[in-house]
Amino acid sequence: MTLTKPAAPDLLETPEWRIEGRDKVTGAARYAADIARPGMLHAAFVGSPYPHARVVSVDAEAARTMPGVRAVLAGADVRPARFGRRLQDWPVLAWDRVRFIGDRVAVVAADSLEAAEAAAAAVAVEYDELPAVFDPEAALAADAPMLHPDAAEYTYFGGTRPPRGHPNVQGHVIHEHGDVAVGFENAAAVFEHEFSVPRVHQAYIEPRASLVWIEGETVHVVTTNKAPFALREQMAVTIGVPAARIVVDTPHVGGDFGGKGLSLDEFALYFLARATGRPVRSVLRYADELQISNTRHAARIRLRTGVDRDGRITAHQARVVFDGGAYAAGKPVAGLLPGGPTLTLAGYHVPAARVEAVAVYTNTLPAGHARAPSQPQLTFAAESHLDLIARAMQIDPLELRERNAIRAGETDVDGAVWHDSLAPRVLATLRAASPSGGMAARDNGRGLAFSARHVGRGKTSLTLTLAADGSIEVLTGVADQGGGAHTMIQRVVARELGIDAARVRVRQGDTGHANVDPGVGGSRVTPVAGNAALDGARKLKARIAELGKTLDQAARIAAPLVVTGEGEQNEHLYGVYAYSIEVSVDRETGSFRVVDAVLVADVGTVINPVAVRGQLEGGFVFGLGQAVMEELHIEDGRVTTTNLADYKIPTIADAPPLRLVLITDAPGPGPFGAKSAGELANPAVGAAIANAIDAAVGVRVMSLPITAEKIRSLLRTKELRAADPE
Amino acid sequence: MTYDYHEPETVAEALALLALHGEDAHLVAGATAFTLLWRQGLLRPGHVIGLRRIAALGGITSTEGGLVIGATVTHRAIERAVEVGRYCPALTRTFASVATVRVRNQATLGGNLAHADPAQDPPPMLIALGAEVVATSAAGERTIPVDELFVDVFTTSLRADEILTAVRCPALAPGTRATYLKFLPRTADDYATVSVAATLRLADDGHVADVRVALGACGPTPVRARSVEAALRGARPDARHIADAAARVDADIAPFDDVRGSATYKRDMARVWTERALTELVS
Amino acid sequence: MKLEHTALVRAPRTRVWKLVTDVPAAARCVPGVAAVTPSGTGKYKGSLLVQLGPVRLVLDGDVALTATDEAAGKASVRADAKDSRLGGTVRATMDLTLVDKGEDTELRITSDVQIAGRIGEFGQPVIQRKADQLMTQFAECLARTLA
Asked: Which chain A residue lies closest to C126 (C-alpha atoms)?
């Protein structure tokens, strides 16, 4: 008998230690709101009480003379400074017009937050109220109040702003491919349904915070913004200071979920810092997070789909109306719609489609990006729609999806041809993982939902330095908003070099030190920054090989050895995923429980095994919250859910059991074949639950959130109808 | 924004401070409700009088089948007290269902009642048990049935010169059963959409001898469901009688629309959960 | 938030009209109102103390009679007030309609109340209830005053 030494386990199969984990659990980690500077002042804003009004005058005399007050600025002091990620349409302080309740008209800097708040309350603003519009459809009427008469003045990054058919349109797009008319003519049946999804907040724990000071000619910004380089570019235009003289530093971020790409306070803080010569800090109150920050877009979605006798899609038509709120500033993508606004039937073969999406200005708080922009809205609609079609056609819902799931060589809803597709495999895996046979109880039901989310695209670079002690430092501009980006970079480098992960340190540099990076978002970090880390490690390996030495020898003789890793991912690829969720409904109350949930997800090679589970399990709970309980209530433009006691998000006690089935053997374009995972789990929860409820008790909820009251009300209507068919 | 914090060691000292600072003073014990309002900027007292150091306000005492709970005893201490479990397990469960452990470790019984939040858990249960509070002023003590303590949202019948010092739970007649049901359709960490507390005792002949029902989150104050009680008292507690009695809850409540449900839904749920509570007590 | 209130006043319409369009006199029927003083034609300054449990609001502001049509029995009042200590504003528009009911008069009040800033964060159902209470007491007091 021979004994062989077991091969060292692959680093990627070993659960990771989070680089920042120790600091976070011990409380040593510092967040933007923890950072102070000597002589620092505190800022407090004055917001509009009106949804739409002309600013007639701002009287700050009383506020200026209050104790501890160092500066009071109004719109006239900052005009024409406006901010935004793609379109700069949001005034730093409104000088002539306020467009939503909470829109800022003045700001105070004082020695203490209390003094600043007291002074802000003493600023007297005279308004002249204007007619307001709260409904996006109403805002598109010919005689609707116009929110942005000065649109021609706005800066639009990256070319010319696309033309608009109505002044209240933020962005408008129509995608069309195939012969839609013929597709509908050939259909055996055509189905049309309308769905709606409300405003929801990203509900991270850490509110936005920022600190700005000016040192010589340099403007320093400490921020919770997850895309520091992008903020630098936006800020340069807003404040009229060259980007090279702005340094943006993002420390630990306490949750993002898509919301932290937009900065609100930094610009006004700059003007205060300039006026006072002192550092100025602002931490958004959570009540303001819920009332003035960029939420997910509410949407009304009308879908029309033709199918043949077997339920195969012949044509698809959709109109998606997004409530964009008072400003488009929160939207980073060209076209000024939330990303992917036309991907209604993502992951299906759609031979002919016409999908129109429009984002509209209304006198409500602005909407922006939230985890998997557009997808929770569109997937709720599309996957509910397909279930209704399956029900009407008397086809098993999974069977209907299997018939339509996109295969290699077929065209998707966006008109793109997929060269390869994991869609059939994901559905087959789901079938195998779902219990077959009857339900455990009479009012239980199982629903499923299937969709696809792009693998992130973009370009970045980072620097690797081999030190004399054989350790490697990676300098990156990627902010880790909690997803595990830095640990991912560390492990990619360590694995490629065949060294212990602990030998690789990842340091995040501010915009003055690190290489340009597009920021966290769009499921981009692992495929893009991961590829940069891999490229850097390979270059380092090559340099060491040129020297003809081992890594440790090279470290001793040639340190510091510095290389730049470049990463790019431009392929249009999708990660496919599907849920099967069983609910148990209490007919008398309409309340329900998720008793079983299975998620099959195509994630490619896993770099951080713990974080992938965390992203998918966390995404499930995040999606569950937005599916069943979250809604920012807005009445006449006023947010009435102003705290987390009324705006409820799930707690761990609400997290149902989730069975994860990962498909990891179909390589993607990221390092070692990685794909993305961060946005796969949340979008489809709503539809899976709505479908499960229909299966359980035969009622259909057409809007999120799926509340007990809605179900109870539908059941009651159904009972009454059964009792009295007339 | 600051205030002077006072820590009296006797009720008399606390009353003197209250008399001295009047409307500019705010009483706290665990300060959980106060801190929320203060941080929101809605309360700006010049003086805060903390009651936690007053020994006489602490402690749980068993008394001839009844119970006296000091005003500054925390929810967690009540939840864990053997005497409380022995007196009425449903009371233990009621306190265990309030918020989270962190909050329960801080929030006190007296603070809970004086805050008069209509969606709180302990008030309906205390009403159903027939409990009363002791209100102490310079003039002496008086007792107020918990049933009569609540006047409006966040408003009690305590006078400005009074401090709520204790809660007395009476001895329960042998055979009395009690329950507290809290309807949480959104998340486990929420105020109830409706809640129902009930106590019930059957006579030897199987008819209902005593019944008390109270609801939370069904109006500006916790409410006693006297119509339900009247319909059931003396009746045979079969399914039909219970359903009929529960349907009468509609006359006892005045819920309003909020994020936890419309008034219509809450009326429907008050009926359903009253029926469930009563059914549980006779099964 | 929109509120509707109706009260039957045991007095003829002309008397009711006289009272409701006399802002300082009518304001005495709103519990918590302190001095109302004229500040121009049909305009007044006043202050209102509102107690929401432990929270005390002191609302200082302007009240104006914005429209009157005695023949139709219709009057409109607008109030804009601010609590500068807590931070927050309240604005209310009230449309009053008087309808003859034999010897009595029916008073209908349709009001739209908007509350912004910190005080609006107290909890909308609570505020709504308070506003509703105030208007009910106002209508009842008017009826009582003239009976």
From this structure: A640
pLDDT grade for C31, boundaries at 50, 70 and 90: confident
Enumerate domains of chain C plus CATH numbers. Answer: 2-146 (3.30.530.20)
Q: A647-675 pLDDT, tens per residue?
A: 999 999 999 999 999 999 999 999 999 99
CATH code for the part of the protein at A298-455+572-720? 3.30.365.10
Does the beta-carbon distance from B153 to C124 stay under 8 Å?
A: no
C121, closest residue in chain A (CA to CA): A642
Domains of chain A: which residue ranges?
32-132+202-292, 298-455+572-720, 456-569
Chains with at least 3 CB pairs less than 8 angstroms from chain C: A, B
Do B245 and B203 lie in a common domain? Answer: yes
Q: What is the pLDDT of residue B179?
A: 98
Q: Of B235, B216, B58, nearest to B123 (Cα)?
A: B216
Structurally, what CATH architecture does the domain formed by A32-132+202-292 represent? Alpha-Beta Complex (3.90)
> Is residue B13 assigned to a domain?
no
Across the interface, whether the CB atoms of B154 and C87 are under 8 A apart is answered: no
Question: How far B183 CA sits from the closest chain A CA (Å)?
Answer: 9
**Amino acid residing at B35:** T
Q: Under a CB-based contact definition with an 8 Å cutoff, are residues B213 and B224 in contact?
A: yes
Give the nearest partner residue to A642 out of C1, C84, C121, using CB atoms: C121
Q: Which amino acid is at A721?
A: R
The residue whose two tokens read 């350790």 is A471
* Lookup: tokens for A523: 């499921």
- The domain boundary residue, chosen from B150, B169, B188: B169
Residue of C86, C89, C123 with shortest CB distance to A49: C89
Does residue B1 fall inside a structural domain?
no
* Same domain, residue pair B183 and B161: no
Binary contact (A287, C121; C-beta < 8 A): yes
Asked if the C-beta of B256 comes within 8 angstroms of chain C's C-beta atoms, the answer is yes
Q: Do domains A298-455+572-720 and A456-569 have the same CATH topology?
A: yes
Last residue of a domain, one of B125, B149, B169: B169
Domains: count for chain B? 2
Q: Please tell me the distance from the alpha carbon of residue A322 to that of residue A137, in angstroms, as a whole number.
A: 9
pLDDT at A4: 60
- Residues 85..114 of C with a Cβ closer than 8 Å to B: which? 85-87
Q: Are A363 and A98 in contact (CB under 8 A)?
A: no
Average pLDDT over residues C54-68: 90
pLDDT at C115: 84
Question: How confident is the model over A591-624, as pLDDT tens digits?
Answer: 999 999 999 999 999 999 999 999 999 999 999 9
Indicate yes or no: CB of A121 within 8 angstroms of CB of C91.
no
| Chain B residues with CB-CB distance to C49 below 8 A | none
> How much is the pLDDT for C116?
82
Q: CA-CA distance, A105 to A57, in Å (whole number)?
A: 10
- Mean pLDDT for A39-54 is 97
CATH code, domain with B227: 3.30.390.50
- By CA distance, what is B273's nearest residue in A? A589
Which range marks the domain in which residue B226 is found?
177-282
Q: Specify the pLDDT at position A7.
A: 65
Q: Is 3.30.365.10 the CATH classification of the domain at A456-569?
A: yes
- Residue C39 sits at the chain A interface (C-beta within 8 Å): no
**Which residue spans within B139-278 are E strands per DSSP?**
140-145, 150-152, 155-156, 163-169, 177-183, 194-202, 208-216, 223-224
CB contact under 8 A, B189 and A588: no
Residue B51 lies inside a defined structural domain of this protein: no
Give all strands of the β-sheet with A504-508 in edge-to-edge order. A504-508, A472-476, A458-466, A561-569
| DSSP β-bridge partners for residue A41 | A280
Domain annotation covers residue B98: yes
Are the Cβ atoms of B257 and C118 closer than 8 angstroms?
A: no
Q: How far apart are CA B191 and CA A514, in angstroms?
A: 47
Nearest to A589 among B185, B189, B191 (CB): B185
- How many CA atoms are closer than 13 Å to the CA of A9, on its beta-carbon side? 6
- Chain B window 144-203: which residues touch C at a Cβ cutoff of 8 Å? 152-155
